[in-house]
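step: validate -> pass
step: tokenize input -> pass
step: predict -> running
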Amino acid sequence: LVIVDLIRGRKKVIIVDAVCGDGPPGTLYKFGVKDLQAVTGQMRSAHDMGVVEAVFFLSLTGELPDDFTFFGVEPGSLEPSLEFTPAVAATLPRLTELVMEAAGIPALQQ
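step: predict -> pass
step: emit ->
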């Protein structure tokens, strides 16, 4: 239940995780609370208790933050690794922009 404790009591939560959906490796997903509830059981996480289950639990207890965004990245594999696959590495610049936008941080000028 570590993820529940990390989310509980926060005003804004942004989570990035590897998830298995229907897309090819490197596919980016963005979900709000209602989006996550709609895909319950359709996506797998690399963790015992995934984000979807944590959101469901916290919504039952009334402890879910109002401002919640989840970014998922389709991995090439859910095997533990310290390296990104090339497909996932290629999505990192766009993922960084999306996370910064969700956090309200202005984009870096190039």
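step: describe -> The mean pLDDT is 84.
step: cleanup -> pass
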